[in-house]
Amino acid sequence: MTRIYLVRHAEAIGNIQEFFQGHIDTELSEKGKKQIAALAERFKDISFDKIISSPLKRAIATAEAVNKYHSFEIYADKRLIEIDGGVWEGVKWTELEKLYPDDYDKWKNRMWEFHSKDGESMTCVYERMRSAVTDIAAENAGKTTVLVSHGCALRNFLAYAEFGDITHLADVGWSDNTAVSLIEFDNTLTPHIVFKNDSTHLPRELSTLAFSRWCKYDEK
Questions:
Q1: Does 192 participate in catalysis according to the annotation?
Q2: What does DSSP say about strands 2-8 and 144-149: parallel, antiparallel, or unpaired?
Q3: What is the pLDDT of residues 15-54, one digit of tens each?
Q4: CA dist., res. 18 & res. 34, Å (int)
Q5: Residue 215 clears pLDDT 70, i.e. is over it
Q6: C-beta atoms surrounding 30 within 10 Å
Q7: N or C: the chain end with fewer CB closer than 10 Å?
């Protein structure tokens, strides 16, 4: 069986300051550092063969935690990077609706149509993640691989894995920081979700979403 663990990066500065991070290369927050400590313990006794990460610092730091009790080289793959938000990057969530009402409406209600000026379209993210994760599964057939990526990017792949349709993005929901999903691929490279967006390794006080105001500006 080919297995892939999908891990969202730990809480970073953009999460606590509540701005659109996208490609901004933010550092982990203090809570994020505690989250990866818990994540390391979760993966202590999980056997895997390879670990691949988005090249952004918040993802690499999370991958290093997954690797704490293992000894793998961490490979960076730019295909696992977060959506490029274009003019949205660095803008606080509370300001986006005022500054970009049409795009914000799409983000909230028709996420698959979202495409910020100078940024990457959501359909491109969907195809990029579908292709990247499927390719990695094919290249590592019969093995278990850990991929560390980002909230929006992972949400797109999970929409593909669960529904085969980008219009179901809202039905996937957001994952908490360091949440884990497990995907199994059959011999036709069809993905099957074993579990998704699981953050049971975090006590409530280490959750990001439980205390984040940005959830009020986006669907959970």
A1: no
A2: parallel
A3: 999 999 999 999 999 999 999 999 999 999 999 999 999 9
A4: 19
A5: no
A6: 9
A7: C
Average pLDDT over residues 86-96: 95
Give percent of the chain with pLDDT exceeding 90.
Answer: 91
Under a CB-based contact definition with an 8 Å cutoff, are residues 203 and 34 in contact? no
Number of Cβ atoms within 10 Å of the Cβ of 46? 14
Look up the pTM and report it.
Answer: 0.95
Q: Which backbone phi and psi does 76 adopt, to 5 degrees?
A: -95, 135
In the set 9, 11, 89, 150, the catalytic residue is: 9
Q: Residues 11, 82, 89, 120: which is the catalytic one? A: 82
Is the distance from CB of 107 to CB of 169 less than 8 angstroms? no
Nearest to 3 by CA among 63, 59, 54, 46: 46
HEC secondary structure over the chain? CEEEEEEECCCEHHHHHCECCCCCCCCECHHHHHHHHHHHHHCCCCCCCEEEECCCHHHHHHHHHHCCCCCCCEEECHHHCCCCCHHHCCCEHHHHHHHCHHHHHHHHHCHHHCCCCCCCCHHHHHHHHHHHHHHHHHHCCCCEEEEEECHHHHHHHHHHHHHCCHHHHHHHCCCCCCCEEEEEECCCCCEEEEEEEECCCCCHHHCCHHHCHHHHHCCC
Q: Which residue has the tokens 């994020």?
A: 32
Tokens of 217: 């500006």
CA distance linking residue 213 with residue 130, whole number of Å: 30
